[in-house]
Amino acid sequence: MSSTGSRTLHTSRPLSAPVANRPLSPHLPLKKPQFSATFSISHRIFGVALGVAIISVPLATKFSLMFDV
């Protein structure tokens, strides 16, 4: 133990000791995905895809007419 001022620092293991091979938090498959989080992520993905489609279709039409493709 080392002391800093009037407080002592306590560690549960020395810094050079190997860390046990175990997860720090529960594995994701143990938890059921929340509906709100799943819906939010899928809504963002579909929103980005729709935005790309809305931008790219007029641009593709413009360039195809401009270059007579």
From TrEMBL:
GO cellular component: mitochondrial inner membrane; respiratory chain complex II (succinate dehydrogenase)
Subcellular location: Mitochondrion inner membrane
Any one Gene Ontology molecular-function term assigned to this protein's record: electron transfer activity
Compositionally biased tracts (Polar residues): 1-14
Biochemical pathway: Carbohydrate metabolism; tricarboxylic acid cycle
Positions of region (Disordered): 1-25
Bilayer-crossing regions: 45-67
Keywords in alphabetical order: Electron transport, Heme, Iron, Membrane, Metal-binding, Mitochondrion, Mitochondrion inner membrane, Transit peptide, Transmembrane, Transmembrane helix, Transport, Tricarboxylic acid cycle
This protein's record includes keyword tRNA-binding: no
Predominant localisation class: mitochondrion
Gene Ontology biological process terms, A to Z: mitochondrial electron transport, succinate to ubiquinone; tricarboxylic acid cycle
InterPro entries noted in UniProt: SQR/QFR_C/D, Succ_DH_cytb556, SuccDH_FuR_B_TM-su
Keyword DNA repair attributed: no
Record's bilayer topology term: Single-pass membrane protein
Description of how the protein assembles with itself and partners: Component of complex II composed of eight subunits in plants: four classical SDH subunits SDH1, SDH2, SDH3 and SDH4 (a flavoprotein (FP), an iron-sulfur protein (IP), and a cytochrome b composed of a large and a small subunit.), as well as four subunits unknown in mitochondria from bacteria and heterotrophic eukaryotes.
Protein purpose: Membrane-anchoring subunit of succinate dehydrogenase (SDH).
Protein name: Succinate dehydrogenase subunit 3
Taxonomy of the source species: Eukaryota, Viridiplantae, Streptophyta, Embryophyta, Tracheophyta
